[in-house]
Amino acid sequence: MVNFDYIINQQLLKIEASSWCGLERVFLNGHLVSFKFNFGRSSRHIFSLNNGQQCQLTLHIDPDSHQLRCRIYKNQHLLTSLVQGAEHLRDSQRQTKQIMVVASLGLLFAISVLLS
Known about the structure:
Layout: E1 2-8, E2 11-17, E3 23-28, E4 31-37, E5 42-48, E6 54-61, E7 68-74, E8 77-83, H1 86-115
Antiparallel strand pairs: 1-2, 2-3, 3-4, 5-6, 6-7, 7-8
């Protein structure tokens, strides 16, 4: 799970994106304002601030670094570009490898039980 936090007009914007199940959620001051399931390399969420100003954020996986980048726009002007931390990326890749090893061992065990 990757999390980004950003303050817009004294309002807390929180973005959660899961590489496991594809769920992306956007919260404004703790209230869910957008969500979707996405397994692609990019996505877009549109929402409004409490004062009615329209905001948009895009999530994009960089093809070179494989890091998740979040760009936040207000009234079609780029406010910021946030990038997933390198340490979080390494942890996520390590967890993926560990899960693949455990799943492979489980599959091999199940096959050996079926064949015996």
